[in-house]
Amino acid sequence: MRCVRCGVCCQDTEMLLSEGDIKRIERLGYDKKQFARTDRSGYLKLRNTQNHCLFYKMDTKECKIYDSRPEGCRIYPVLFDSAVGIAVDRLCTARSTLNWQEQAETGLKLNDLLNRIDKEAQHRIKRKSRRAKVGT
Predict the structure, then answer these.
(1) Which residues of 23-53 are buried (b: 16+ CB within 10 A; e: fewer)?
(2) Which of 4, 53, 99, 114 is deepest in the core (most CB within 10 A)?
């Protein structure tokens, strides 16, 4: 795909993060609390600031951590839509540059990523539950 740096994908993102994403970004010197939040279901998500990803530079339309960006950002514009499953985001202005083979290959990567993230979230919730039981 040929990204046109429009920034649509960086606006109001709910990007899920894997433990690998967290470690990769922390190695750049960022604290997890700066860039990630955990939702009630145990999923780690990228933080937003002023309605865009924390790492998006509005003035230059670039990602501050491009080479270390989350896997979900690397896979975009292929995403999971609860209504249809694996899909290409209609909001992406460069979506037409992604051919069918790339879509299929990226869909497999997305499936793998989502499975890993689900397992990590389940593990996080179990750990939290065990801590709560010990604390009572």
Answers:
(1) ebbeeeebeeeebbeeeeebbbbbebeeebb
(2) 53
